[in-house]
Amino acid sequence: xNVDIHPSWKPYxxxxxxxxxxxxxxxxxxxxxxxxxxxxxGKEIFNAFNHCGxxxxxxxxxxxxxxxxxxxxxxxxxxxxxxxxxxPSLINIFKEIExxxxxxxxxxxxxxxxxxxxxxxxxATLTVRAHNAGSHQKKGWETFTDAIIKTxxxxxxxIVFLLWGGFAKKKVKLIDSNKHHILTSGHPxxxxxxxxYWFGNGHFSKTNSILRxxxxxxxxx
Length: 221
Known about the structure:
By secondary structure, this protein is α/β, with parallel strands linked by helices. It has a single domain (7-214), classed as Uracil-DNA glycosylase-like domain (Uracil-DNA Glycosylase, subunit E). It has helices at 10-17, 20-35, 47-50, 88-101, 112-115, 141-155, 165-169, 190-193, 203-214; strands spanning 38-39, 59-63, 119-123, 128-129, 160-164, 181-185. Helix 7 (165-169) links the parallel strand 5 (160-164) and strand 6. The longest helix has 16 residues, at 20-35. The mean pLDDT is 96. Residues 50-211 form the Uracil-DNA glycosylase-like domain.
């Protein structure tokens, strides 16, 4: 696995790359990709960082695992490649944007357009074996992505963190709430959304309101 990551992140993450756990993680991922079908493609593993530089990051959305079916994962949490059917959680995200901002439901589920505006779409685990959800969890990725969250918290200010669901909410301990903006809600998955824990959270308008107050460009969701 080639750690090909945007140069703006390297000064903050170089120490992680040199730690024993990361070297073991690299060995594990290399072996998995050589012997099994895994997602996303090798060149897309660090997509979240390569399209959203450290200095450009304004918003952080935390997911759990990449999609594990063919053609879906593109290295950005909740995002799918152009032309791919929208998964249920993404459908509910788009439905909330429709209600919250009055925008039309988008044709494309590729959230690269968000990344390029400063939204870091961070999965806690960056790789997965095909058709085997969670197969690359607890191999070191979570240690790495937790370090990223802490690094952002410590070295930046006024970042909007969107924590959706129980898993993401646990990351609040990594974030300094005195210098950042933390919005929490239920997960956009059908199970959570249908129980009333997702729809109506207004996170997209609230995020843009925070960004406007800070005098920075708001997100074109």
